[in-house]
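hey
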């Protein structure tokens, strides 16, 4: 197996659609006081400094049960890709949710192989849930929305900014 992903500084978020949570029942929101920890489904703890709403697109029930975070290089070697693919397939087959950031490299491998194995995955996104970042993962994000969940601390139509990655990492 090889990594068919490369880092491209020209990747920009896709402005796919703006959703208003009051008008779209597919978007669920969870309110958390700023800079506090909040218990989410099945004991998941969530820290959202400076943010009051966690935007969720997909099935929030996917957050129930065991969750495993898988992160890694944006430019992995072939053995690293093979290891991540096998690991995420096994995690999914064991019934756990594979969580990652949707980035190029290992994150994309994690999400893709969780879905290939018939499991679910969660993308914790550095942009709004109505966008995909990086753009080349737009199709992957759509599949995750259908069979998993995309989570973001940013309101719809929020573009990527350097500081958003640190905020995303607190979710």
């Amino acid at each position: 197996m090889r990594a068919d992903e490369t880092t491209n500084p020209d990747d920009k978020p896709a402005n796919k659609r703006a959703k208003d949570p009051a008008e779209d029942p597919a978007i669920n929101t969870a309110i958390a006081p700023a800079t506090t920890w909040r218990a989410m489904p099945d004991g998941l703890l969530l820290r959202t400094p400076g943010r009051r709403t966690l935007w969720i697109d997909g099935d929030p029930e996917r957050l129930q049960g065991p969750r495993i975070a898988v992160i890694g290089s944006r430019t992995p070697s072939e053995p690293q890709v093979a290891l991540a693919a096998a690991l995420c397939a096994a995690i999914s087959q064991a019934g756990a949710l594979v969580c990652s950031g949707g980035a190029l490299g290992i994150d994309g491998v994690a999400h893709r192989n969780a879905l290939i194995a018939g499991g679910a995955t969660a993308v914790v996104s550095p942009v709004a849930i109505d966008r995909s970042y990086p753009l080349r993962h737009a199709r992957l994000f759509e599949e995750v929305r259908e069979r998993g969940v995309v989570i973001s601390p940013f309101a719809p139509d929020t573009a990527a900014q350097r500081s958003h990655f640190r905020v995303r990492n607190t979710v």
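Residues 1-39 have pLDDT under 50 and may be disordered. Residues 90 and 117 are 8 Å apart (CA to CA).
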